[in-house]
Amino acid sequence: MRRSLDQHLEDQHEKFCEQCDFKCFSQEKLDVHYYDDHSYVCEICEQKYYSQQQLDAHHFEQHSHTCNQCGKEFTTLEAKVQHEQDSHEQFLCSFCNKEFENSDQVEQHEADVHEEEFEKEFKCEKCKKILYTEQALLQHTEDKHALED
Would the pTM of this model clear 0.70, i.e. be above it? Predict the structure, then answer.
């Protein structure tokens, strides 16, 4: 009996759109109407969503890529990475090449993680800078002194 009443209500009673004058007898048709005519559309990829909250979540997950150093926003991860490589100095650990946002973080990381390796020193003969790996000394020499010879 309950099934027939539900079916009766579905089939015989009009459904109304709360945003316009659309009417129908089926909840499914009303849902399709809302999706087609009143959905929230992403301006970047044209994906449709039922609510502003869903659209905002989509935008954040799919299209919002913010530079950690300057706050500039990009629509693709690739554009963000390219910007960071082109526009910001990289701070790399001289032992493991892990990247950091600033020199203080590098120094803290090196002190915490590579403490034993600090006992070795490699001095640049040209500028007397002290580095802690042979690879770091070679890279320093190439970067800073290659044109001097």
Answer: no
